[in-house]
Amino acid sequence: MKKSILVLAVFLISLSTQAQSIFGQWTTVDDETGAKKSIVEIYKKDGKVFGKIVKIFDPAKQKNLCKKCKGEDYNKPILGLHLIKDMTKDGKYYKHGSIVDPQNGKVYDLRLAVTDEDKLQVRGYIGFLYSTQYWERVQ
């Protein structure tokens, strides 16, 4: 009996930990229209956190290139683009990395946090100014 209670407790703790994880796939939403734009997969590699676009919902935009991006991202396909780079955990947030907006090529400092099990707070900064989006976890 004690063993089955312990197993159940460990299972429930692992579920709650997984629900609060930033890792996995997230649906991005257009700020103005509320329409789904893309799916971004967030993963860890070599101790850093990255995110890449794995799906674009609008068929007309699926072959678009990042023409306004700079450096190594210039003219790369937006589908597959690593838009989140070099994030590290800092307390309850992931920080110290960046995100690029493929629409305008601008790079922002970034802070990520799970607000509840289905929402990811994505906050981009330039100096003290910031903009926040909420991405939805893909089920």
Automatic annotation (TrEMBL):
Keyword Signal: yes
The keyword Zinc appears for this protein: no
InterPro entries tied to this protein: DUF2147
Native organism taxonomy: Bacteria, Pseudomonadati, Bacteroidota, Flavobacteriia, Flavobacteriales
Stated name of the protein: DUF2147 domain-containing protein
Keywords: Signal
Signal sequence coordinates: 1-19
Pfam family of the protein (one): DUF2147
Start and end residues of each DUF2147 domain: 24-137
Gene3D superfamilies: 2.40.128.520
Domain of life of the organism encoding this protein: Bacteria
Organism: Olleya sediminilitoris
